[in-house]
Specification:
Layout: H1 12-32, H2 38-61, H3 66-95, H4 101-112, H5 116-125, H6 140-168, H7 172-204, H8 210-222, H9 230-250, H10 253-256, H11 263-277, H12 284-288, H13 291-318, H14 325-351, H15 359-387, H16 401-404, E1 446-450, E2 457-463, H17 465-468, H18 471-481, E3 483-489, H19 506-521, E4 526-530, H20 541-549, E5 555-559, H21 569-576, H22 578-581, E6 583-584, H23 585-588, E7 605-608, E8 619-620, E9 623-624, E10 627-628, H24 638-643, H25 645-657
Parallel strand pairs: 2-3, 2-4, 4-5, 5-7
Antiparallel strand pairs: 1-3, 6-8, 9-10
């Protein structure tokens, strides 16, 4: 016996649910600064509606006209989505700091291609990209994930139909229910696991979200069997709305979702839909299906897309970190107006174009929406790329040589590299994936650079990014001192046998053990690593333990860590100037030299304190010798590290000669 087909009808309460979810997303973003769980509401509603629609097509026609289906979706989704993208590119060029341009350009392309969620997933686990700031397009991750669902869901329905018709000879609805339950089980199991081991990745992972869409589909199939008494429906309906509204308060959504925690808001939607099947006089559906809620639900898609870039532009233009009550109201009203106009002027006329009778016309119109965006963003990207090719005159931009060689920098020069390029200019070895290990990989990769044919000395550069950002200085010295540089680098790791109370992951500890084995089997002349962490006034015990294990095998050259600045120095200099972005020395650098405050240091260690190149007198400036010192708040810029070669070279000569 087949499952009963649900009564085909318009469900006004779902427009109201969209209204609530959109407002929650905006309110939490603007005033609370957190995540509400509203996008999870969108996902289950999408799963419910699309499953119902596609199943009806298959049952009626025995097929799904994929081209017509996708054109129909594009007709509904593209007008507002690509208008917001084009608007965002234009205002980003005028308003957003150059330090964020490359990030925004990348996110425009990934948003247009509906892969923004994967772009953010990679950034979330890429240590070198974790200092990316909020861009005006990050909210497109949810749209991208939904786009992937819309693209692939017809194949789930068709697969179920073919299995039911050709293989099992069973009713399509029963087969589809089994398929959706399987997808739900596999996806939520994966989601719970991935959320536990790598929540930042899981948050954007499509596979960790499939269960939400599947749950909506399951509900669409089972809704005929879920008719309850009106009194019960009245209670569960209002309970469902309360659950949706309170999810962001009850749970830290941004750090525990998706996993099993996302069952909370999705359950709220389920309760509302069940309640609306047999509505009570004072049921929640009366509110959610009212004209104001239905009206806003019709433009909630545009409201979601508009509110976030307006918020980010507000932050940037007014140079604030919070939004006032009046400012927030202005953002909401602006998003409401823009969504209304974009729907009325763009979306509605495009949606009137027949998919069946005017495919070419519709495709032309949609292409007309896409091409201006792609052209503008490409020109912007080419401009940014051209800026990366600039060369700098040593006399005008001496950097650290202004101190080591007493060179006078040219007056009235803008600091280099520009905020536009400094974040992308990483030490050269990062261009080769074989030269470093990512955060999760415990495999040791070794790259030999510099004078590899006939080296006089071999220096092993070991650690994470705070060792790696010294590479440009060693690269400059390699020919002069005939150095072979062996790079042992792992993101978010340190040369230590202590995990710093869980800060360093298990793969880092395994990596450290393997590095020690390799160093013992083929000792370098010197190990170059860091001596402390930030402003720390002692040498960590985990460092000392590693050095002790190499005592009698090789020598250690440990350089004091650079100060950790505040905010984003390149962006700050671009917007406010050098003086306002300088930091008092006593806030970022200990008065006590770490190794003078630490016992048990082995005899094979030579220390180098280059703090004078980061802090002068009582101040630590973000620019020295017309060169940006930092590419973010705690990593040295590649150009400045290169200008430190002279200072590093003097210390290295002493260490290699045993002085």
């Amino acid at each position: 016996m087949d499952l009963r087909a649900p009564e085909k009808k318009f469900r006004p309460e779902l427009e109201g649910v969209r209204t609530v979810a959109a407002f929650l997303v905006a309110i939490y973003h603007i005033w609370i600064g957190s995540v509400s769980g509203g996008v999870d509401v969108f996902f289950i509603v999408s799963g419910y509606l699309i499953t119902t629609s596609l199943l009806t097509k298959v049952e009626r026609e025995g097929r799904i006209h994929l081209v017509e289906y996708w054109l129909g979706l594009a007709r509904r989704l593209f007008p507002v989505a690509f208008t917001v993208l084009l608007f965002t590119v234009g205002l980003s060029i005028m308003i957003m700091p150059q330090a964020q341009w490359k990030q925004i350009i990348t996110e425009v392309f990934s948003s247009a291609l509906y892969v923004q969620n994967w772009q953010l997933a990679v950034s979330a686990v890429d240590y070198l990209a974790q200092n990316n700031q909020a861009s005006p397009l990050q909210h497109y991750w949810a749209l991208s994930l939904q786009g992937q669902f819309y693209l692939t869901w017809p194949f789930v329905i068709l697969f179920s139909f073919l299995v039911a018709e050709k293989v099992l000879k069973t009713p399509i609805r029963k087969t589809l229910l089994a398929v959706l339950i399987t997808l739900f089980t596999l996806s939520i199991g994966y989601s719970v696991y991935k959320t536990a081991v790598n929540q930042p990745w899981a948050y954007f992972d499509t596979l960790a979200r499939v269960w939400e869409f599947s749950l909506g589909g399951i509900l669409a199939l089972l809704i005929p069997y879920l008719t309850l008494r009106k009194s019960v429906n009245m209670v569960i309906g209002w309970l469902g709305l309360a659950v949706i509204c309170l999810t962001g308060i009850l749970l830290p959504v941004s750090t525990v979702f998706p996993g099993y925690a996302a069952l909370l808001p999705t359950t709220g939607v389920i309760l509302i839909i069940i309640a609306a099947e047999n509505p009570a006089r004072f049921g929640v559906d009366r509110l959610l299906g009212s004209k104001p809620f239905m009206f806003f639900g019709g433009i909630s898609y545009g409201f979601y897309l508009w509110h976030w870039p307006l918020l980010v532009f507000y932050y940037s233009y007014f140079d604030v970190n919070t939004v006032s009550l009046l400012g927030g109201v202005a953002i909401i009203l602006s998003a409401f107006l823009l969504s209304f106009l974009s729907v009325k002027i763009l979306e509605t006329p495009v949606r009137k174009i027949s998919v069946k009778q005017s495919k070419k016309r519709l495709a032309t119109v949609l292409l007309g929406l896409i091409l201006p965006l792609l052209c503008l963003n490409t020109v912007w990207a080419l401009y940014v790329k051209d800026q990366n090719q600039q060369q700098y005159d040593l006399k005008e931009y001496p950097g650290a040589r202004a101190i080591s060689d007493n060179m006078e920098p040219a007056p009235d020069k803008k600091p280099v590299p520009s905020a536009l390029t400094v974040k992308e200019d990483l030490p050269a070895f990062y261009d080769n994936p074989e030269c470093f290990s990512n955060m999760e990989d415990d495999k040791v990769t070794v790259c030999s650079r510099g004078e590899t044919d006939d080296p006089e000395y071999t220096v092993a550069l070991i650690g994470g990014s705070h060792s790696g950002h010294w590479y440009p200085a060693l690269e400059e010295l390699s020919k002069k001192m005939k150095l072979q540089i062996d790079i042992y680098n792992k993101d978010a790791c340190r040369f230590s046998d202590d995990d710093f109370e869980g800060l360093l992951n298990e793969s880092c500890m395994d990596w450290n053990e393997e590095v020690l084995k390799m160093l013992k089997s083929d000792p370098p002349d010197l190990v170059f690593t860091t001596a402390n962490v930030g402003e720390g006034d002692t040498v960590p015990e985990g460092y000392i333990h590693q050095w002790e294990k190499l005592d009698g095998i090789t020598n250690i050259f440990a350089v004091r860590d650079n100060p950790f600045m505040e905010g984003d120095p390149p962006q700050c200099v671009e917007e406010k100037g050098i003086e306002e972005c300088s930091v008092p020395r006593d806030q970022v650098l200990s008065d006590t030299v770490p190794w003078e405050n630490t016992e048990g240091i082995p005899d094979n260690v030579t220390f180098a304190d280059l703090s004078e190149y980061f802090c002068q007198n009582d101040t630590c400036p973000p620019v020295v010798g017309n060169v940006l010192v930092y590419r973010d708040y705690h990593h040295i810029s590649t150009l400045y590290a290169r200008t430190l070669a002279g200072a590093v070279g003097e210390e290295l000569k002493n260490a290699l000669s045993g002085e």
